[in-house]
Amino acid sequence: MTQKPGKPKRFPFLVGSVAMVALLLGIGIFLLKQNYAGKLPIDTHSNLTGGTHSTNGAVSPLLFGTNLSLFSSNGHVLNSSGTRAQLQHMHIRIISMPVRPELSNDTEIQAAQAIKSIGAYALVILRGAVDNNVLADDTRLITDMNSVFGNTIVYY
Asked: Domain residue spans in the chain?
């Protein structure tokens, strides 16, 4: 059978594509089996003392977090040790803490102390451009977070 000039050969391309997909699937299945068999090292311990945290290719524990609403000083996380114990039991690793203009400095520090008592990282949401006194307020907040967390990593 002769081929017309200018018409590409489709069969070799199709075979090559199928072989490539099969090879990639095989590699993926092999790597998954190695991981589930426990042959790949996975670090499940978090490092809350500061410094670098390495998970050796595992999923970051920082994906498992929650948000504080922090609209007032009457929040469950701030006032209930049972709520904090449940968050710790759920292995919450990072907590997002908003900073609102109506909150007192004491409430912000109390929220930071609650996050620290759970053993989670703090992700502090700075107000930024919506604040007329942004530099002074953010500097004060960062100083407060440093007094609570010390050398532990705080994300902003």
From this structure: 10-40, 61-155
